[in-house]
Design brief:
The complex is a heterodimer of chains A (about 130) and B (about 130). By secondary structure, chain A is mainly α. Chain A has one domain: 3 helical TM bundles of succinate and fumarate reductases. In chain A, about 80% of the residues lie in helices and about 0% in strands. In chain A, helix 4 runs antiparallel to helix 5. Chain A is elongated and about 70 Å long. The termini of chain A are far apart. Chain B has a single domain, classed as 3 helical TM bundles of succinate and fumarate reductases (Up-down Bundle). In chain B, about 75% of the residues lie in helices and about 0% in strands. The longest helix of chain B has about 30 residues. Classes of the chains: A mainly alpha (about 130), B mainly alpha (about 130). At the A-B interface, helix 2, helix 3, helix 4 and helix 5 of A face helix 1, helix 2, helix 3 and helix 4 of B.
Chain lengths: ~130, ~130
């Protein structure tokens, strides 16, 4: 171990006071997902046979549009934070860990953005 | 993003008890739900792409891999939802005594089995008509 000043050693190991933030957001998104995911799941089970026009009609109703967009975003954040914790627990090599977390982040941003766009296109009546 | 020495989750340090099997299962179902989430987002994209693209997507969903993923996805949702409520109660400071934690563990198992049986039978009878 290279000799370092006391201050440097403290800074290297001390809390930066950021650790609790992800923990808290994970809980807040979980709480929001209690009604949102329940609503989504029940809607899926109630929409008969998932036919194209039935699904479009369902997505177009204003409350459904709003709740669907909220569900997409909140679920993406919750899911990203969860996968990140899993990667941090099991992947011990730093480079690999950072690469995986970044990859997961990119995938979630891209898929959530695409899904929100898709819902908006349907809701605002684009494409037949 | 700060990278060095973030703490590991507590259950990675303990000896086996059935309650920490539930903890591991919370993780496993979370990972399955992440995959299901991505599939659902593709489904939404397919809806926006028009009737023909949607038809192709639904045909592809009939492949056993996706049927299994959606089935597992639903079971995982039932578990992750119930056990998630349990975790939220703990975070709020309730039910942390060992006796209470064990009782709520059994409540989660029973609730999940009930939900899966109930939904499966509703889906089954809706397809085939009531007996």
């Amino acid at each position: 171990m290279t000799p370092t000043s006391g201050l440097e050693r403290i800074l290297r190991h001390a809390s930066a006071r950021h650790g609790g933030e992800d923990w808290w957001v994970q809980r807040v998104t979980a709480l929001a997902l209690v009604p949102l995911s329940l609503w989504f799941c029940v809607s899926m089970l109630l929409t008969p046979a998932m036919g194209y026009f039935a699904v479009r009609a369902w997505m177009t109703r204003p409350w459904n549009t709003v709740l669907l967009v909220a569900f997409i975003l909140v679920a993406a954040y919750h899911s990203y934070l969860g996968l990140r914790v899993v990667v941090e627990d099991y992947v011990h090599e730093a480079g690999m860990r950072i690469a995986l977390v970044l990859l997961i982040r990119f995938v979630y941003v891209l898929s959530a953005a695409s899904a929100v766009l898709a819902v908006c296109v349907v809701a605002f009546g684009g494409l037949p | 993003m700060r990278e060095h020495s973030r703490p590991l989750s507590p259950f990675l340090h303990y000896r086996w008890q059935y309650t920490n099997t539930l903890s591991i299962l919370h993780r496993v179902t979370g990972i399955v739900l992440s995959a299901t989430y991505l599939l659902l987002m593709c489904w939404l994209m397919a809806v926006a792409q028009g009737e023909v693209a949607y038809g192709r997507f639904v045909d592809r969903l009939a492949h056993p891999v996706f049927t299994v993923l959606l089935g597992l996805g639903f079971a995982s949702f039932a578990y992750h939802f119930c056990n998630g409520l349990r975790h939220l109660c703990w975070d709020a400071g309730f039910g942390l005594e060992r006796r209470e934690a064990r009782r709520s563990a059994w409540m989660v198992v029973v609730a999940v089995i009930l939900i899966i049986v109930l939904v499966e039978s509703v889906l089954h009878f809706r397809e085939r008509g009531l007996p």
